[in-house]
UniProtKB/TrEMBL annotation:
This is Integrase-like protein. Residues 1-49 form the Integrase catalytic domain. Residues 69-108 are annotated as: Disordered. Residues 75-91 have a biased composition (Low complexity). GO terms for biological process: DNA integration.
Amino acid sequence: MESQIGLYKTELIKPRGPWRSLADVELATAEWVAWFNTTRLHSAIGHLPAEEFEAIYYAQYQPSEPVGINRLHQSRGGSESGLSRSSPRSGFAASEGLSSDRCISILT
């Protein structure tokens, strides 16, 4: 798998240089990131743009209660951490053979 910085350098920085100023690099970087997330097809997620894959993922993932709310102080019967967890492994991710951890790592 290619690194993000490697893709960035290969697809943007090297072909379009030399750069005149930092502002030119910043503007081109913002445009490249927008293209990368909304248009570029990613083979690791079924040849979909990242934005579309994320929308599909979150549309099918409906947790039963919010994750990360500490309920330990409200009731002593809960788990030590007070976090609830539900499995997002269903729908598109499961049909593509992707684990929930893989989907999350792809999206981040």
